[in-house]
């Protein structure tokens, strides 16, 4: 039998994306490029396990907000904020299986640019997102930030979280997303990482003292 994709080479493995048997070469070349590979695919998992981290060359042209400093002390002090934002992203990803890493990165970048404008000029300007999926991600993130501030008000009597801290947290997530995605057009490597951090759909805002450390730096 020939490969269901190239129809030339001999098929050797079953592809969950095409529901047929394909050759190893097509699997390697089309994986997360033309194929929407499900996370449970063993060949996808094996490929991710052996992939090298993305290099500086791979990240050329990526919007990493290098002008924003995100130090280890900030990551320690605002761990629960980072967990909340990560939870919001994983919640959005679970709600829409059509989303991929590029959607998450685009939405995060848009929100980050808005906060950068707010911090630098005091102007509230929302950078438009290009799809309903990206809008849903942005809404989840903004809702989480609002709930985080409401939780601070409830437990401490005042809001401590500054917009500049939100900006740094978002920049951290943007950089982590770029580092963890494969860069392929249909990659969901970063999304799968996010979902793995929160196997159950529970809030991390109301009881941050009970949350363990789950944020992993890129």
Question: What features would you highlight for this structure?
Answer:
218 residues, mainly alpha
Describe this structure in words.
The model is unreliable at 206-218 (pLDDT under 50). The chain is 51% helix and 3% strand. The chain is an all-alpha fold and 218 residues long. Helix 4 (79-95) crosses helix 8 and helix 5 (101-121) packs across helix 6 (132-156). It contains eight helices and two strands. A two-stranded antiparallel ribbon has the order 1-2. The radius of gyration is 19 Å and the shape is elongated. The longest helix is centred in the middle third of the chain and has 25 residues, at 132-156. A hairpin with a 4-residue loop joins strand 1 and strand 2.
